[in-house]
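2024-03-11 09:14:02 INFO worker-7 job=invfold-0412 stage=load source=structure_tokens
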């Protein structure tokens, strides 16, 4: 077996269950119209919408220290299996839930499982991959999550909640069945002889050791800001509320169909973005992405302000969500991963990613909570103007604060 095939198959094996995590992430958008209708399996009030989203993110936040401890003690593979068990439990609880409190519990477990699984998969990929292929293989984590969003956008409007939940379980069981065939990334294995040597325990550094290094805090700030700006550009709000957003925008096409198109373009843009990084560099892509995303968000806000949108502009939301998916994912959607790879040595990426991911989740919670409040009290277009302004600020931050690693050595 060649080195590239070994790495690709091993990566698919350890990331396959992340499809289920993506289904959890996008689940609230198509399921909320069902819960607000007469078909709801339990009593549900509009004020509970935000909590379905927040409890998932709280689970992700709680999973940050748990995942960190788990992968340091057990490596990447065992935490992934444990996360699969939690995620299966979450789907079963959702399938059988008779009260909203059980759904909250399931969402929390799903968020915790998603964090542990993604960190475990990231560590495993780092151990089996070489520098040239690592960025492509790491993007598979993002790709699998977005595939899960596509799948849940398709299934939930068509099938009962019980059936779509069991399909989520099926993805996890398929991964668990294939897991015994996934090799341990040890130096003793035949495959490991052609791979880059994994980090040993003594090569990992603590946070205090990290901040003593030259320019460490500056690099941490850059990666953390870019991670947070994904949410400041409205990505979490859009994915978790897309069906309601399209309804507010008086979309001409069926909202379920447009949502699937949106998520599909996110998937397509992921390998395109990774392929463009070596040619253009992360900074150039981030400049293009932040500017384009800001324009799309601004136009969407103007569209929502147009009182006559129902008469002749109902096609505009379709175009805008497709453009948002493309321009966002080509740069901003991948920037935290690509910039961390370019600016950081391997033994510091774990610390920086943990801090930046935690900050990003906190920002995501704030945005998810504020979005309905701002929409209700200030108007449905105001959040999009805010998202647009914040994204243009990212353009300026990128222009003046992020180094161009295509023209100089990282350490300089």
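2024-03-11 09:14:09 INFO worker-7 stage=emit residues=412
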């Amino acid at each position: 077996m060649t080195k590239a095939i070994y790495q690709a198959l091993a990566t698919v094996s350890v990331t396959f269950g992340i499809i289920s995590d993506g289904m959890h992430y996008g689940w609230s958008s198509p399921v909320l119209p069902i819960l607000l209708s007469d078909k709801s399996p339990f009593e549900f009030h509009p004020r509970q919408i935000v909590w379905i989203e927040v409890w998932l993110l709280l689970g992700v936040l709680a999973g940050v220290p748990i995942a960190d401890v788990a992968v340091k003690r057990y490596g990447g593979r065992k935490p992934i299996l444990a996360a699969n068990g939690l995620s299966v439990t979450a789907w079963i609880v959702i399938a059988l839930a008779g009260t909203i409190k059980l759904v909250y519990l399931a969402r929390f477990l799903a968020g915790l499982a998603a964090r542990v699984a993604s960190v475990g998969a990231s560590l495993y990929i780092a151990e089996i991959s070489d520098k040239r292929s690592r960025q492509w293989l790491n993007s598979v984590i993002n790709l699998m999550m977005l595939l899960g969003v596509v799948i849940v956008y398709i299934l939930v409007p068509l099938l009962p909640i019980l059936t779509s939940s069991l399909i989520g379980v099926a993805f996890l069981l398929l991964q668990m069945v294939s897991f015994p065939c996934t090799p341990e990334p040890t130096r003793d294995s035949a495959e490991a002889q052609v791979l880059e040597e994994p980090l040993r325990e003594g090569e990992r550094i603590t946070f205090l050791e990290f901040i003593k290094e030259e320019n460490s805090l500056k690099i941490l700030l850059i990666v953390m800001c870019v991670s947070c700006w994904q949410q400041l550009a409205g990505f979490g709000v859009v994915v978790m509320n897309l069906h309601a957003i399209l309804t507010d925008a008086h979309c001409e096409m069926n909202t379920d169909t447009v949502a699937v198109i949106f998520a599909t373009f996110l998937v397509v843009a992921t390998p395109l973005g990774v392929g463009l990084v070596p040619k253009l560099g992360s900074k150039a892509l981030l400049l293009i992405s932040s500017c384009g995303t800001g324009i799309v968000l601004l136009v969407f806000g103007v569209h929502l302000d147009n009182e006559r949108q129902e008469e002749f502009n109902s096609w505009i939301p379709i175009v805008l969500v497709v453009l948002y998916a493309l321009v966002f994912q080509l740069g901003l959607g991948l920037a935290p991963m690509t910039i961390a790879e370019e600016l950081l040595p391997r033994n510091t990426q774990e610390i920086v990613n943990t801090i930046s991911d935690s900050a990003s989740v906190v920002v995501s919670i704030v945005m998810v909570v504020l979005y309905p409040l701002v929409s209700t009290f200030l108007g449905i277009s105001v959040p999009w103007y805010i998202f647009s302004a914040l994204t243009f600020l990212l353009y300026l931050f990128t222009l003046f604060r992020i180094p161009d690693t295509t023209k100089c050595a990282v350490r300089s």
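2024-03-11 09:14:09 INFO worker-7 stage=report msg="The chain has 18 helices and no strands."
2024-03-11 09:14:10 INFO worker-7 job finished
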